[in-house]
Design brief:
The structure holds 2 protein chains of 2 kinds. By secondary structure, chain A is α/β, with parallel strands linked by helices. Chain A contains 8 helices and 12 strands. In chain A, about 35% of the residues lie in helices and about 20% in strands. Chain B is an alpha+beta fold. The chains are: A alpha/beta, B alpha+beta. Chains A and B meet through helix 1, helix 2, helix 3, strand 4 and helix 7 of A and helix 15, strand 10, helix 16 and helix 17 of B. Chain B: Belongs to the TFB1 family.
Chain lengths: ~290, ~600
């Protein structure tokens, strides 16, 4: 994995962007298990406090990833919201707002939370910090995510991942749901962060403090969990399905699950010749990326 | 050549020295004809290629004749001289293919051992093969087993490895002849009696002069052949050299005043001077030449070279005619070290001169302008003598592109497959779940207010769970560290005793080799292929029981958990052999069914 380069300034001061999954459908599904939302919040708050105690210049920003929207719920650098109560208050307001934005009455299954939105917000915040001056803490993003991947967000999420890679911000991910997240696997893989799916959800705090608490500089000296495999499958642009094999536009690299006459992204016309030979050039396997 | 015919004008000779009979050579696939231009002559030829054993040709060189020599199997030869080398080469290639074709047909029709024509191997080709075998012990083993065991012929074995041979050939670029390291190649020869002084100029010497003295080169391009002939030019040059060798600067200046062309040679080379200036600019800026002044030969006049140059004080008007020995030495050294920069035949003086000018101009073009050069120099100085504390913030360093071990990819694929199995169960559970919007949001809000009212859960984590997590994590990390990226097959092989492992690997490579030859022989079009397939099949059926026996042995000796993996290794080999046998049998049956209707021996 590519080492994350240090950005000057004291190398052990961190800016931690925590994306908390507040998808109500996901947490409803977890209600009957041992790991409930209050428990989750307790673990996360304890972790955030320990981050702030590690270095007095450390900064923590929490972004709630809702079902319809996302928002900042906590920022340790603003004096007005320095306590946990503030976070909960803000979180409550956020859930209210999220509900008012909701249009459909019920969702099949767990539904997807707006990961692409919160990732973009985190990156915007980090960009602002980068531009504030030469002295800034080292940023990283931690996704605490439980909802399954929304294939419809594929392009947006990938774009966020690549912009994070460009600005050398690692995306750590801790999956608290029952499924692995291909998006977050790729995000951590590409940006050089850590991907982890805790086996014992009760011990979330232990996982967080052991794996995700160390600053980027110290990481180079540590053996952190490495993913055994990364799911590189992509979503097609036409139906937003996750596919193993499909068609790819030779001009703009858009991915489709079926053959189209014209690329919906860039408008290139695909030739007729390949009809006789469907196994020809446009075929691809997504794992090759 | 495409229509199987080639006609060329040539001379037929009985030996190299005789002038030969001019005529026309006509080549077809089976035979060649020679018709003399003079129909009265009796030197007509009509020879079958079957009788021709080999061919030789003269080296391509402007001074030599373009000869092609066809040697007869019963001794004796046919010698042809062509007008040009391309003509000769075309005929040679045609003859080579014709001989090869005849050889194949001839051997296929005769019932002799069905080995393809063993083309005349040159010593270098042979050496290359031997070297490859020496370098690669696996290849050597295979070679010993298959070729010396008589299963494959030498040519067949190497035909499959043409690439390997080519690679080893490409590794060594052809050696290029460097310039002579001789400075005094233009030596005047005087016969002592008359006042004549002779200079001996060869193309090689001219090349050297052009390389070392750009001014002479420029003068040559300017004067020859417009103003004077080539001979006049070199005479003038020689005269200038002679004047220099006498070291009589005053006399040289006097001569130069009379003849402006001669002056070009006698004056200092302007181009060299400007080039020297340019070179000095490119010297490492941190090098302090003044600080080194006390070193070695600097205190001696003329750098300590034993050259008794005239030390008389010259008037300034003679200054341009002075030539320092060390300058000459340096220039010569620079040219020799650079090696041959042009790739032109030395015979044509003009083209040599032009080629030099071209390369010189190309160099000039790539040189940066003065301003850029200055900037570059400043940059270099700051790079070499950098004080870290005074540097501004650097750009983020670029992460190098690291191409990963492809094995990681396959391992991850395997992990994905395993994961997919596990995920399938959770997927089913998830689908059943469905709640309304109000319910979901209400429960989330309830949870938040629950925290508000009851406070955080305390303790957050029980010591037992923490220990469990900690142990699990460290185990996970250490296991991925040691097992990641390892091919599971390798580990199985490593568990076997080394003798068995080697034997297994040898079987595997030889089976692969045999199968490659086996399948490439189909469809069987000639008797030769038929014989080869039979040979290969016999060899394979010998290996088959050996492999089975070994498999049994391994099965008995190793533990049950490895057994499955070993069988995963061996089974594909046996299956591949089975497929080959089945194809062979089917082919034989088809053949025998057909041969009933056809005359015997028809292939």
């Amino acid at each position: 994995m590519t080492p994350v380069s240090s950005k000057l300034y004291a190398d052990d001061v961190s800016l931690l962007m925590v994306l908390v999954d507040t998808n109500p459908y996901f947490w409803s599904s977890m209600k009957n298990t041992a790991f409930t939302f209050p428990k989750f919040i307790s673990h996360v708050l304890a972790f955030l406090n320990s981050i702030l105690l590690l270095n007095q210049m450390n900064q923590v920003v929490v972004i709630a990833t809702g079902y319809n929207s996302c928002d900042y719920v906590f920022d340790s650098s603003t004096s007005s919201m320095q306590r946990a109560e503030c976070l909960l208050e803000k979180l409550e307001d956020f859930v209210d707002k999220d509900e008012s934005l909701s249009q459909e009455d019920s969702v099949d299954g767990i539904g997807f939370s707006l990961l692409s939105g919160s990732l973009s917000m985190a990156l915007c915040y980090i960009q602002r910090v980068f531009r504030s001056g030469p002295l800034h803490p080292q940023p990283r993003i931690l996704c605490l995510h439980g909802s399954p991947d929304g294939p419809g967000q594929y392009v947006a999420v990938m774009n966020s991942i690549f912009s994070a890679q460009r600005s050398m911000v690692p995306i750590d991910s801790c999956v608290i749901g029952s499924q692995h997240s291909a998006f977050l696997q790729q995000a951590s893989y590409i940006t050089g962060g850590v991907y982890l799916k805790p086996q014992v959800s009760d011990g979330l705090f232990q996982y967080l403090s052991t794996v995700f608490a160390t600053d980027l500089h110290s990481r180079s000296f540590l053996q952190l969990p490495r993913p055994v495999g990364v799911d590189f499958r992509a979503s097609c642009f036409c139906h937003k399905n996750t596919i193993d094999m499909g068609f790819i536009c030779s001009v703009c690299l858009s991915i489709f699950c079926k053959h189209h006459k014209k690329c919906s992204t860039c408008g290139s016309n695909f030739g007729e010749a390949r009809k006789q030979d469907p196994s020809a050039s446009d075929q691809r396997t997504s794992d090759g990326s | 050549m495409a229509d199987g015919k080639l006609v060329k004008r040539t001379k037929y000779k009985t030996s190299v020295k005789v002038p030969g009979v001019p005529g026309v050579l006509k080549l077809t696939k089976e035979r060649f004809y020679f018709m003399p231009n003079d129909p009265t002559l009796t030197t007509k030829l009509n020879v079958e290629f079957k009788l021709i054993k080999g061919h030789k040709s003269s080296k391509e060189c402007s001074s030599k004749q373009a000869l092609l020599n066809l040697t007869q199997a019963q001794g004796g030869n046919y010698l042809f001289e062509f007008d040009s080398f391309p003509d000769r080469d075309q005929c040679r290639d045609f003859v080579a293919s014709a001989i090869a074709a005849c050889g194949e047909i001839g051997k296929a029709t005769s019932e002799k051992p069905a080995v393809p024509h063993d083309e005349q191997l040159s010593a270098t080709e042979m050496g290359r093969r031997i070297k490859l075998l020496q370098e690669n012990s696996e290849l050597q083993k295979l070679h010993r087993q298959l070729v010396i065991g008589g299963i494959l012929s030498e040519a067949e074995f190497w035909a499959a490895r043409k690439k390997l041979l080519e690679q080893s050939e490409n590794k060594k670029p052809k050696q290029r002849v460097a310039l002579k390291n001789d400075m005094w190649s233009v030596k005047p020869l005087s016969d002592g009696q008359t006042n004549r002084v002779t200079f001996n100029l060869t193309p090689e010497v001219i090349h050297q002069i052009f390389a070392e003295k750009p001014a002479v080169r420029q003068a040559y391009l300017k004067f020859v052949p417009g103003k004077m002939s080539e001979k006049e030019f070199w005479t003038k040059y020689s005269r200038a050299e002679y004047l220099h060798s006498t070291k009589n600067i005053v006399a040289a200046a006097a001569e130069a005043a009379e003849d402006e062309e001669l002056a070009v040679f006698l004056k200092q080379d302007d181009m060299l001077v400007s080039e020297a200036r340019r070179k000095i600019r490119r010297v490492d800026p941190t090098l302090d030449m003044e600080a080194d002044e006390g070193d070695d030969y600097m205190h001696l006049p003329d750098h300590g070279l034993p050259q008794g140059e005239t030390k008389e004080i010259l008037e300034p008007q003679y200054e341009p005619f002075k030539r320092s020995f060390s300058q000459y030495l340096n220039q010569h050294a620079a040219v020799v070290l650079r090696g041959r920069v042009i790739d032109v035949e030395l015979g044509d003086t003009r083209s040599v001169a032009e080629a030099f000018t071209r390369t010189y101009q190309a160099e000039q073009a790539t040189e940066v302008s003065d301003e850029n050069a200055y900037r570059e120099r400043v940059k270099k100085v700051s790079q070499v003598a950098e004080i870290e504390d005074l540097q501004g913030p650097r750009d983020p360093p670029v992460a190098l592109l690291s191409i990963k071990d492809p094995r990681d990819y396959f391992d991850s694929q395997q992990a994905n497959a395993i994961k997919a199995l596990g995920d399938a169960e959770t997927g089913i559970r998830q689908m059943k779940f469905s709640v309304s919007k109000e319910e979901a949001f209400c429960s989330l809000k309830d949870s938040i207010s629950e925290i508000n009212s009851q406070g955080l859960i305390e303790p957050i984590i029980s010591p037992e769970v923490a220990l469990k997590v900690f142990n699990g994590l460290s185990q996970n990390i250490s296991s991925t560290k040691y097992h990641l990226g390892k091919n599971p097959h390798e580990s199985v092989l490593d568990q076997l005793p080394s003798a068995t492992k080697n034997e297994l690997l040898l079987h595997w490579t030889s089976i692969q080799e045999l199968l490659k030859h086996f399948w490439s022989s189909y469809p069987i079009t000639t008797k030769y292929f038929y014989a080869k397939v039979t040979r290969l099949k016999d060899a394979m059926s010998q290996i088959y029981p050996k492999l089975q026996l070994m498999f049994q042995e391994i099965k008995e000796s190793v533990q049950s958990d490895v057994r499955h993996q070993v069988s995963l290794l061996v089974q594909p080999m046996l299956q591949a052999l089975d497929a080959a046998f089945a194809h062979y049998d089917a082919d034989i049956q088809k053949r025998s069914a057909k041969s009933g209707e056809r005359p015997n021996g028809f292939v």
